[in-house]
Structure prediction request, 813 residues.
Amino acid sequence: MIFSNRISRRWSQTIVLAAVMLIAPNLWAGRLGPHLERVIETEGARFAGGKFASTFTRTIDGKKEGFAHVFIDADIASLKNLEALGAEINTVTSSGVMTAVVPVNKLRAIAAVAGVHKVTAGQPVKKMMDVSATATGVNLPDTSYPRSGDSGTGAIVGVIDTGIDIEHPDFIDAYGDTRIIAVWDHTLDSTDVTQTVSPPAGFSYGTEWTSPLINGGYTTCAHRDNDGHGTHVAGTAAGNGGAPSYAGPYTGLAPDAELLIVKFDFDNEKNRNSDTAVVDAINWIFEKAAAAGKPCVINMSMGSDYGPHDGTTAEERGLDDLTGPGKIVCISAGNAGSSWEGPSFDTHGGPIHGSGNVQTSHDIVISTNSNYTPTSADDYAFFDIWYPGDVTTYVQITSPSGVTYPQSYTGSNKTLWYTDGKSGGFATPEGTVYVENISGANSFWEAENGDNNIYIEISDFSGVNPASGTWVVNIYSTASGDVTYHGWQGFSDSLKHSFVWYDSGSASHVIGDVTDPDLADNSMTIGKPATAISAISIGAYQTKATWPGRLYDDCEDPSSAYSYIDMDYATPPITYYNDFHLQDIAYFSSRGPSRDGRSQPFISAPGVGIVASLSQVNHAIPGYNYFRCMNRVEYGGYYTTLQGTSMSCPHATGSVAVLLGAASDLGITPAPADMKETLRQGARTDSYTHPAATDPTEANDDWGYGKIDVTTSLDYLGTTPSDPPPALDTVVPDSAGWRDTVTVTLSGSGFQTGTTVDFGALITVNSVTVVSESEIICSISVVHKAVIGPRDVTVINPDGQSATLVGGFTVVK
Prediction:
């Protein structure tokens, strides 16, 4: 019996005795992303914890209507027609990446507008903290972290986070005036406040609070940082140490920089937790900085663990469009560097990445742990898998009872779960199994990389909890030869202790055997959008292990009496971490490389035991309080101690602000590639970052180029890069047709180990071998539907320098 996947929870809960096929028609035709198709077909039903697409409602004329955050990749000329269909366009970048809120019932019409190339779902983002359910923070460097005499004068620090405590002394100058130029609060609309405020010009939501309102404190400004994460991040990057402290002063990296703050809607109070709003925030900050006539660096201690991990998502391309000279973005690498053992596994679950060859059987094996207890809703496991665009694959899933779906590929199942075949799933007595296998031209992520993408879900979507036991996913190829794939998995809390093995050839594994070489690993876990080409991605290491804390008699009462306590990472109640080691990389710090072969993170900074500004708004809230109850409040009361790449990122942001201010004095305006080169040249290396027998000048996938050192980087500011730029002279052969895979030789000069090659949209670079400084050999695949005609070929060295051969390669029929 075949059903459309327009299926409600009420209907699906009756399916318990037999598998029912739920076929989703392929209606997107290259324009409407598959996740949005599923949203339409299921009338907005939530799946995979809302991590890939979701809707929200607005009441219009007394009637509730569904809306979605989307990216629209379109020609500028289509704007008027999009707005006529109800699309609220907020940001339009130079390459035509648009952020929008659109009515769900108009999605297909919007995708059909002339000039629209693709419409895809906005994705939620999270704070990059070490404990996912609580606030995270940063600390200021100790003596092992070289400081600079420069202070960020003339530069602006932008922070996209949970907001800022506007009355905290760290953000008030010596004259009693705020250092904050403006705040854009995504969680407050003009109808929520008594003040006369409105959204920023050109945007349709939130409220903008300017410095005159901020100077009046909380009497005239309704913005609050109730969470504390954003205040801590801002204090690390640019706090001036003006608050009382027990062991301070705790001064940020750029204490004289001005600030622009965006309060992001992490908790979805206004249904705005979407990466489309991240692009809007970047756009607003750079517009305000430009109006002030000053260079700006933005801190993003946030991101997502899923996507292609190669910098090609709409969010990342939009970010790249908005950066430029004097417009820099620093982004947390992520906290997905965990292992299969210790308190980290107990808290978060295991690593999230795996890879393999589709010619090996049992591509992915998942075993639920003995502590799996099904919940009433939202039990799920999902896999986001990427493989070359010139390959056709199909998928089979075997349940714990041994039933295979689909059991055959005949009749209506002939193209089920094939590349660009039928998508959908089965409601079974062991849960719902659902697969979409999409060609690069129709990617879920609006990724311009030409690669194919499989989404696999095992869930309670049809009202039946996933069965405990061992599930097996097999990916088959219609062609002979090796086909490499990379996958990233995610679980509901109920299933987070599941064990996952990739490319093992067998279902026989032992849960708890952490020595099994086929277990998922923590490589290639740098989050989105930290893999954006222009972004500076930041890893974390430890410089501090202890702090002077407050031990409250009653931590739920902000007015409670307290006593002094020497706190560290082994003193209860803080016992939920794996071991940290001074000066070594933090175990949680996400690892590289990016999927397109770039070394990641770019550089690392202190991110453990970070003491910085504590939001007094948060501190005054009664009830359970993470900072108070975990003895993290510095004894003086105005600072707190946190850890995560959320905390290492603002060290880099403050450092870049110092460099931008100094560069302005020299009359130069560094672009992202220039700033990366300056940081690279100043990076410190030691036995932790580069063990014996490794080249200290090369980046690696744990640390990047080493430990950030702004003092040394200042010496290189504005200097000519130490290595000459590359030159690209010839590409041989210089043409290929659709579905061709060819080996190409690039000749020129100045190539480096780690140089990457870009042939443009819908040409996949399968491998790159730098033979010498003058020769690169790479394998490329031309995807079906790649634009016919000449295109540019670009080589990019690890130091950010590049060379382009205009019209260097031609796609032929």
User: Anything to note?
Assistant: The CA atoms of residues 31 and 118 lie 4 Å apart. The first helix runs from residue 9 to 12. The mean pLDDT is 89.
